[in-house]
Design goal:
The protein is an alpha+beta fold. It has 13 helices and five strands. The structure holds fe (ii) ion (FE2).
Amino acid sequence: MKTTLQLPYQLKGFLELGDAVIITDSHHIILEVNDTYQTITGFERNKIIGLKAGFIKSNLTDQSTYTSMKTSLKQLIPWSGIFINRKKSGELWHSSITITPFQIGEDLFFIGIFRALEQLEEGLYLSENKKIEVQRELLKVLAISCEIRDPGTEEHLIRVQELTEVLIKAHNKKNNLQLEPNYINNVIHSSILHDIGKAGMPEGILYKPGALTSYERKIIEMHPLIGADILNKMSKEINYDFIKSMEVAENIILYHHEKWDGTGYPFNLKGEEIPLEARIVSIVDVFDALTTRRPYKDSWSKEKALTFIDENKGKHFDPSIAETFISLF
Ligand SMILES: [Fe+2]
């Protein structure tokens, strides 16, 4: 949409600011940008005037940021937030922006003033990628330290995480579930925590070769509850933004041994009562356990384990996720 509006002289002073400045009409069509904007983004003004200001979006900014921006600006209230845009070079540009609506006569304008977050003092801001990286590492350390007694643990956890990533993405695509990228990432990161409750299990039972007594089985079946307890204690202690949202992790820890037909533990949940994230990790966890050799058991071949999953779909496993899983091989 081209605009016929000219930049009013009252707004020209904003272009002299040292920060990157963009001025748009009421439809967010760019009327003018200043030199700093051009230097930082690499886009020349005459190539971008007339474009929508969002042409620079990276798709990494949370949708909720745009929603809150639109809500404020519609009511002519200035808005501030954080955008992750993409420079001409392809590099990401994390910036804090304040957008101020300006009514001049009949016409409405928006002035956007950016401040690059990379310029802020170190420690004040973590980019989204860095945040994800830190979260991933933190959860991995926690998971491994809880299960350090078993030498094969680290490899098992990493394989579970990798397979969870492949499965959830494939299942989302195949069934057009339109799962939020944030949710998908959360499931992938949290999958590594599924067995943290094993930290509270006596070794003699955990690695006992052969059959367990019913008493020993009862103890093992407590590991989801103990795991959720560990997670809750930890998230109370560490109150950083990136581990605040622990619901997905808690669901995986609590429900990864529930079965589709209601015969699992600890709550005998049935079908879709079991959260999706737990139904996904359950299949991956069983598959990896079956195909891995442990001191107390032999490994199964991939084919045999897949047959097991196929035979148990609708019993142990969500039939639709089981089908997606089998189709991956
Ligand atoms: Fe488990």
